[in-house]
Fold:
Amino acid sequence: MPVEDPKLTRARDMISRAVEERLLRKAVLSKSRLPDVIKASALPFEDKNGEMRLRLETYMTDGKALHENLTPAEAVERLTELISPESPGRGGSFGQLDLVTAAGQCSIMCSKKGSMAISGRLGEKRAETGGHDRQKRYILSGEEPFLRLLGISDGDGRVIERRRAKFRQINRFLELLRDVMPKLPEKELTVCDYCCGKSYLSFAVYHYLTVILGRKVRMYGIDLKADMTALCSETAEKLGWEGMTFECADIAGWSPPGGTPHLVISLHACDTATDIVLSKAVSCGARVILSTPCCHHELNGMLEKIAGKGEYGYITRHSILRQKLCDAATDALRAARLEYEGYSVEALELIDPDETPKNVMLRCVKSKRPQDAVRESMREDYIRACRGLGVKEPLTLDRLLGALYIPAGQL
Structure:
C-alpha cells in the first residue's frame, strides 16, 4: 500500500482544520490544468437547518459555472482531491489552493511534476474585531458568474467600486428573503419578478434559491420593455439557468404557467406600478411578497391641489415635506390595505438611506383572513386615514382590490 506524501497529509490536515473548525472564510483554486476551466472557489454557508455547508463553484471559460454544495467531510476530500497529484481522474486539476481563514492564510501548491509546497500556516483563531474593522459577511461574495455578467463584478470576481451600493442592496434583499423562507413550501417554487427591468433581483434570488439552498425553482421575469427581457433571456442562457424565463408582457393580463406564484418580488416599480404589482400578487394568492416601492407621485398629486389646507396643511404647504409625508403615508396605506386582505406586513429598511432614498421594503406574508369584526375595524381605520389626509379618490391599490374608501361626492 503506497505511503501518502507527507506534504499532502499536511495539506489535508490544514484543509480539514479550516473546514471542520469553521475557520474557513474562502478557498480559491487557481492555475487550472483543465482547458475549459478558469478557476474554482469555495465559500461556507448555513443551510436551512443551520448546518454548515461549502458551496464550490467552478468557473468555466464559456462564462458558465458548475455548482456543488458539500458537507464538511465532502469538502475536505474534494478540495484535497483537486490539489492532489496522486488522485486519479480529476486529481491535480489545479496548481494552487489558497485558504483564507480566521486563523491566517496559507497556500498549497502542486507542480505539474507532482511536487508539493506549502506556505503560510494556520495559527490560533483571531478574535473578531468590532465597529468599522469588522467586515460584513454577505450572502454573495462577488465572484458569482451572474454578477460578472450583470456588470457588478469584474472578470476576477471583485465588486466594481461604483456598483458596491447595488451589491449591498442585492445582498440585503436576499437577507430579507432568507428570514421568510420557512413561510414558503418545500416543493418546487414558482417565483415572479414583476416589472423586472434589468433583473438584478431575478438572478440573485434564483442563484440563492437554486445554488445556495438547492431548491428547484421556476422563475419568471415580466416587463414591458422588450429589449430588457431579451437581454435578460440571453444572460440566463449564458449561465445555463434553464429554470428562468423572461417575457415582454403587461403583468395585469399575465399569469405564470404553473398557476399561483409562491413568491412575488419587485424592485422599484415606479409610482402606481407598485400598486399593480401588489394587487396582482394578492389576486394570485402569493404566499410571500417582497416589494420596494418607488416614486410616490399619486398621493402627492392629490395633496398638491389642497396644499396648505386641511389637517396636514402645515406640512403640505412645503413641497419637500409634502413629498416625504406622501412617501410614508402611501406605503402605510398600502400596508393597511394588504393587512385587510389577510397579509402580515412589515415595512423594513432595504439599504442605507444615504445611498438611495428608495430604501423601504414591504415584506408581506399571507396569513389567516381576519375575522369580520376585525376587518370592519380595519376598514374604518383605513377610511379615517384617507379622509384625514384629504384623499379625493380611491388610491390605485385600493381601487384595484375593491375600494374601501369612496369619497362622499362619489357615492
User: Anything to note?
Assistant: The CA atoms of residues 81 and 169 lie 37 Å apart. Residues 6-120 form one domain. The chain is about 35% helix and 25% strand.
